[in-house]
Write a structure and sequence with these properties.
By secondary structure, this protein is of the alpha+beta class. The protein is built from 28 helices and 19 strands. Helix 13 runs antiparallel to helix 17, helix 16 runs antiparallel to helix 17 and helix 19 runs antiparallel to helix 20.
Amino acid sequence: MCGIVGFVSQDNFKTLRGALPEAVASLSHRGPDDSGLFFDEKAGVGLGHRRLSIIDLSTAGHQPMASNDGKVQIVYNGEVYNFREIRKTLKNYGHRFHTGTDTEVVLKAYIQWGIDCLERFVGMFVFALWDSRRRRLFLARDRLGIKPLYYYFSAGTLLFASELKAIMALKDFPRDLDQESIPLFLHYQYVPAPRTVFKNTYKLLPGHYLVYDGQNLNCRIYWKHPERSEIGAGRGTTEADRLQQLEDLLTQAVSDRLISDVPLGALLSGGIDSSMVVSLMQKVNTAPVRTFSIGFKESGYNEAPWALKVARHLGTEHTEFYVTPKDAMKVIPNLPEIYDEPFADSSAIPTFLVSKLARTHVTVALSGDGGDEQFCGYVRYWSTQAMAASFQRLPGAVRKSMAHVLGSIPPHMVEKCYLPWRPLLPQRFRMANFIDKWQKLIHLMRETSLQELYRMTICLWSQHELYSLLGKKLPKTRYEETFNETADWPLLSQLMRVDQKTYLPDAMLTKVDRASMANSLEVRVPLLDHRVVEYTSKLPDTLKYKNGTGKYLLRKLLSRYVPSKLFERPKMGFGVPIDKWLCTALKPLLLDYLSSDRLKKEGLFDEAIVQQKIKEHLSGHANHQYRLWSLLMWEMWRELWLK
């Protein structure tokens, strides 16, 4: 994996040229093995690159890489897994190759087919390609948004990079806060694409490309998810057919991602998705797969014993590490630097730690990300469906009254009543994080529309609460856009599509990319091979959610490799006990960053509301862990980047 940064600017060329080395250096964690620069002064172009050597470790893979005639230059981040097949095709057209890298294949594929080359690539990637013949810059991002690309455009100046910190390192970048990003961040825990936290600065959307000729900046889409007419139109006529087709596709996707000239392994949580990936890795590998997991002493957050059982069954070479609160606390001060945009998913902490563990042994790791959003894995999908049906039979006034009564019960009392009954309940109700679900239910009972109902399963502060806290209304995003586009879809398909276009690239994949690349670890996600996504999108919902359980087809497939007793358990997630830490080890940090004096001085949040949330949480009368964590992450980010 690598990091890229660059610019196009006639007016500010000298200033940006002088700043580019520093911007490249800011991405050294993404590519510790090599760095390079390219400038075209007449065109006002600069390209910078940091390299993490994965394919062809020789210096021949140095970037920026030039075409044979020197007229086309590329900086590239990612992996095109079918590069060998494309190289064979290009050789038939007369192209000669001087390296064994996929970078050279991408470069010459562009020379042969132009922008249409994107349709041929299977993989995860972003790249910037300066074509001096046409005097244009070509930027592209992979179909699912696995790799990140940011850009700033104003007054004819275009800046771009793998991470915002590199753009901020370029001189004269105005760190003008986009005020509308603040309520969006607090609502979603991230700033939804294409927005960023800064004005005139954007995330290139998945499956899109940009072309800039010095005058006009054009953004186009080259891939999109299947349309409504294709949903439920799976190629097989029987469940057995579809199961075999899925196994063939996933096996191919996993096999493709084992290409590497450096040590490779897998992140194994013991859940269905990562266990599926490791099972297929072990199937196509001749040697035991290296697997890695972390655990916590707190039972509600610890999946390590299950990961170990799966690893032993599959015969992997397994390494586990039990995280102490002290280990986790060391990560927290670094989060604003790692993410360089406000980001409040606390599972970034264990993701960083398992990446750090893996990097001590391997350079590349496969993960199971993307399974939930394709196979109906989140409880919120079918709970939304059930609640929508129930709420239609229950008047809104009655629901709101019930929510008021239930909300008046302190969380610790609810938990005290729940725990003795937990072992006697059906498995899907034996939740490790019951209080979180309980409080979500109370919020949901107050909602009316389906869109708002689902919003409250994934968001922190309601729109009304945000207006009270900030005095700002919540802007529209791709969440509403996707919901409206899929209004006539089956509900479960609709909810999964909303997540695939919003939460998956903006939160999940962002989390994994930054946490892994901060440790110079490349993470590959076979479940998000676009061919797999296109296939699963066409499967009927009945093959994803059945008999009260999600991931129906994936579970059946996994049971061919792993006994169901090792994975049939309530979904735990990859979290940490933030609620408890805010009352103990993190309490000084919380009270410092969210102090009345600090908040009054900044004048951004209603200080009284914040103090009330802190008081309720510390006293145990309410669990505001995620709301307080989001405020804490905002303040820590602000202190680092808006000095």
